[in-house]
Amino acid sequence: MNKLFNIVIGKNWFTKVLSLAFALLLFSYAYDPNESTTDVNVPGDSETAILEDIPVTAYYDTENVVVTGIPKTVTVTLRGPTVHIQQAKLKKDFEVYVNLANAELGSKTVPLLIKDLSDKIKATIDPETIKVSVKEKVTKEFTVEAEYSSNSIEKGYAAGTPKVEPKTVKVTGAKEEIEKVAYVKANVNLDENTNEEVSQQAKVSVLDSSLNKLNVQVEPETVEVNIPVKRTSKTVPINIVEQGTPPANITIDSITLDKKEATVSGPEDVLKEVESTRVEVDLSTIEKDEELTLPVIISNGVTAVDPELVTVKVKVTVEKEEQEQQEEEDEQEQEDQNSEEATATENIETKTLSSVPIGIQGLNSSLEATIDNPSSSSTSLQISGEQNRIRELSASDFKLYIDLTGMDDGEHEVAIKVDGPEDIEWELAIDTASVSITNKEA
């Protein structure tokens, strides 16, 4: 019998049959057709996982309503078998959602739900519920306005009218939000001292009347903005503006500038209205011949002026105080009475005649003239001659005038002429006058 058993055991086919029997026995022990193989767990092999920043999906009628109050992400806590928890953490193939497919307009509290998660896992969502607002959806077109800082434009340059492309955008949102829209702006960031044309893609902002940003969608979100920038300037005269009254013993003979014109820069619409600049001279502080450095004053809206400063020369005649002059006259009269007539005849005397008016002659009847300088249309005249003769003369004995014969409209420098007694010598405080001639019909 032992010999027969050894023969059977030694056969190759017997070994194979025995191995197959053992394999079938092990398979029947491990396999259960009613249960997944992933459900085989070591007793007590479970864990808890906290997953943050899980996105929330909202299901609602996106064409007709707008929903607010839905958080972008939530925190989900998972509890269950380790193998399932690890798989969920790795794949994150479940979905947290809120179902508002049939929600009516208004505010309501709704639960957050989860799907596509193994039924072996228990999930908790934080927060469990959310308060949402369902509102009617409206789309409306608005014109886009470019917005930029004019302080970024270099002095002497000006920005033209911006061009926006496209000119309008579609704004979509809740009806009450659309009704709040006050401004639709494309914000352009300019470099400091911009002096050339700017083209830039600018993001569109939708704001209410208090400049608060509204929760709406914009289509397109950006527009192309083109801002022309160019240099603008104009040359205009510098006018002398007299302020205050000179002291009683001061007569202003002339006020002259080292430069008569200035170049102003600014926007075109501003420059159209600018006809001149000015220098203000305070006469109340003038007590002698002065040379002043004063600013050129420009109109509102003008961005630059060249020159910014000018030199002003003021020439004056200083008259003696009345009491002092009277005392001198009395003293002189006494001396005259004590002097011999022959001696008086031989003496030469000098006297200054102040504020002698300057007349105009020879002007064509179709023209009119104004004496710009001296501004008072008068000047001082110093006369010299035989003492008795000089004393009896006054300003009325002399005629000062300018001859405008043959002159056309415009600005002219004209010599001042003097008619007076032949036996008297004289010298003018200024030799020429500045005259503006214009057509009467203009």
Provide a count of the helices.
8
Strand content: over 45%
Anisotropy-based shape: rod-shaped
Main-sheet strand order equals 6-4-1-3-7
Largest sheet: 5 strands, mixed
Average pLDDT confidence is 84
The total domain count is 4
Give the N-to-C terminal Cα separation: 152 Å
| Poorly predicted spans | 1-5, 29-43
Helix content: 10-25%
Can you tell me the CATH class of the largest domain? Mainly Beta
Structural class: alpha+beta
Q: Strand tally, please?
A: 32
Rg, rounded, reads 51 Å
User: Within the CATH hierarchy, at the fold level, what is the topology of the largest domain?
Assistant: RNA Polymerase Alpha Subunit, Chain A, domain 2
The CATH architecture of the largest domain: Beta Complex
Quick rundown:
With about 450 residues, the chain is of the alpha+beta class.
Describe this structure in words.
The protein is an alpha+beta fold and 442 residues long. The chain has 4 domains: 38-136, RNA Polymerase Alpha Subunit, Chain A, domain 2, CATH 2.170.120; 144-231, YbbR-like domain (RNA Polymerase Alpha Subunit, Chain A, domain 2, Beta Complex), CATH 2.170.120; 233-318, Beta Complex (RNA Polymerase Alpha Subunit, Chain A, domain 2), CATH 2.170.120.40; 347-439, Beta Complex (RNA Polymerase Alpha Subunit, Chain A, domain 2). Helix content is 17%, strand content 47%. It has helices at residues 2-9, 12-30, 82-91, 175-178, 268-271, 322-338, 341-346, 387-391; strands at 46-59, 65-68, 73-81, 95-99, 106-111, 113-115, 122-126, 129-143, 145-147, 157-159, 163-165, 168-174, 183-187, 198-207, 217-219, 222-227, 229-231, 233-243, 250-257, 261-265, 277-282, 290-295, 304-306, 309-318, 348-361, 367-373, 378-386, 399-403, 410-415, 417-419, 425-428, 432-439. The longest helix has 19 residues, at 12-30. The radius of gyration is 51 Å and the shape is rod-shaped. It starts with a helix and ends with a strand.
